[in-house]
């Protein structure tokens, strides 16, 4: 996270480790530890992932970066968990963030306080939080993409698609997805059946999740 006055690395549990899962740079033998920390009561407050764990000396649930929850940050963490195969964990985070959105009238703010969901029935408002805010407004789009496990790689002519939609959501249909100069749609029914419309010519559909690009993969 940084260096102290003697140039020693600061040791802290923060949401940034979830970004490492999202980018695919975490070695597989370390992924369990990272996911475990992210989903611990110290990091996951029921609505989202805290920027700093409650066990850290600098934790403050209403600090801008030291204990608050940012929707876009949480969405990135959820995408990282899903990418490494922590499906149930990612789904828990997604549903928590969607519940947070519903609790604040359908508009996710820039950030909210890090108090646990069991302590307060709604996310703790942050007085200076922007609402609407572009990052927060984009977060549900990433949540939908990660639940579909929709990962196009057009230079290689492939589209990875392997939906993992929670039963609590049921059917999910996403249309007008821009891809390869056209528009496509993905429909997942409550039983898990997947249908695809408008797949661009020359793009192969790979019905499995794309694997992370970790250091062990050439």
Q: What would your notes on this structure say?
A:
This protein has two domains: 1-148, Glycosyltransferase, CATH 1.50.10.10; 149-218, no CATH class. 29% of the residues lie in helices and 14% in strands. It has a three-stranded mixed beta sheet. Strands 3-4-5 form a three-stranded antiparallel beta sheet, with no helix packed on it. The chain has helices spanning 16-23, 28-38, 71-83, 87-103, 134-148, and strands at 150-153, 158-161, 172-179, 182-188, 194-197, 204-206. It has five helices and six strands, in the order αααααββββββ. By secondary structure, it is an alpha+beta fold.
Short description:
The protein has 218 residues and is of the alpha+beta class.
Topology:
Blueprint (H helix, E strand, L loop, with lengths): L15 H8 L4 H11 L32 H13 L3 H17 L30 H15 L1 E4 L4 E4 L10 E8 L2 E7 L5 E4 L6 E3 L12
Parallel strand pairs: 2-6
Antiparallel strand pairs: 1-2, 3-4, 4-5
Helix pairs in contact: 1-3, 3-4, 3-5
Beginning-to-end CA distance, first to last residue = 28 Å
Structural class: alpha+beta
What is the global morphology? globular
CATH topology (fold) name of the largest domain: Glycosyltransferase
| Overall tally of structural domains | 2
Strand content: 5-15%
Described by strand count, sense and barrel closure, the largest sheet is: 3 strands, mixed
Return the average pLDDT rounded to an integer: 93
